[in-house]
Amino acid sequence: MGQEIIRTTAFDLALEKPYLMHAVNGVSAAHLCHLLPAARHPAQHNQNQLTNFYHFQRALQLFRDELATGVTKANMNALLSTVMLICVHQFMLPQSQPDPGTSFVYAPAERRSECLRWLTIQHGFNALYAELGEVIWGSVWNPVFTDSDIKELASTIMTAEAGDDIHALFLELCEVTPDASSQNNPYYEALEHLLFTRRLKPGMNTFNKLVTFVGSVEGDFLQLLLCRDKRALLILAHWLALMIGLDQWWSSARCKNECVAITTFLMHDQDERVRALLRFPAQLVGIDLMAVELLDGHSIISS
C-alpha cells in the first residue's frame, strides 16, 4: 500500500519539493550501499555512502526550512512523505556489520537516549500528525493511516483467554489486571500493540499495523526501556523479532542487532518467565537458550 503511494504520488511530489527529492535520493543511495557492501565493493560502497550523507543532509536542512514556513494542507503530503523516509533512514543500521555492543542496551546511561534515536525519531511524525489535526485525513497517506489503526481490533486482546501461553505470560509479568489501562500501567499500550500484531501473519499486508508499534514507545514506557527494565525490553525484543520476519532491507539488520543485544543482556536472568519469553526472539537470531541454561546450571552446581 505504502509502496504504491510512493510510486504513484510521492515521486511526482518530489519534483516539486527539493527536500523530498533529496530524501528519496538519500534512501536510494543507502539501498545501493546495502546491495553493494563495502567488503565486496569498497569503491562503489564509499561513493554511495557519500551520496547518501549528502542528500540526507540537504533533505534535513530543506525540510526544516519548509517546517518553519508552516504546515498546511498544501505541503502536508510532501512533508509526510519526507518524514517517513527520514524515519526509514534513521532506522537503518549505520555500520556495515552488526555489532550488538553498539546497542542502547550496552550503552552508558547518559548515551542510551541517543543510541535509541533510531526508534524515537518517529516522535517527529507524531508532532506533524498533531499539528495537521483533522486535515491529515485528506492526505494521500490516509489509506495507510487507516490500515495501521488497531485500537478497535485490539480492544479485547488484553485478557489471558485471548491468546496462547506466551500471551498469558506477558500479561502476568507486566501485571496487567482487568482494570489495567494505559493510564495506570506503563507497559499497557506497547504490550497491547504487540499482543495484537503477534497474532497476524508477518508480511507486507500487515506491515502498517506492525510498524506503528513505534508510536507506543514514549512516556513512561520509553523511560523503562532507557532504564533497561526487563519487561519493557522483552516487549521490544518480541516486536523486533516480528519485524525480522518482514525481511526488509532497511530494517532487518537493525532489528537483528538490537534483538541479539537484548537477548544476551537478559539470557542469564533467573526468572523463568523471562527466559520463557526470551525464547522466541532468541530463536529468530540464532541464540540457543537451552545451551545457555545448561551452562548456567553447571555454574550453579560448581559453585
UniProtKB/TrEMBL annotation:
<dbReference type="Pfam" id="PF11951">
    <property type="entry name" value="Fungal_trans_2"/>
</dbReference>
<dbReference type="GO" id="GO:0000981">
    <property type="term" value="F:DNA-binding transcription factor activity, RNA polymerase II-specific"/>
</dbReference>
<dbReference type="InterPro" id="IPR052400">
    <property type="entry name" value="Zn2-C6_fungal_TF"/>
</dbReference>
<protein>
    <recommendedName>
        <fullName>C6 transcription factor</fullName>
    </recommendedName>
</protein>
<dbReference type="InterPro" id="IPR021858">
    <property type="entry name" value="Fun_TF"/>
</dbReference>
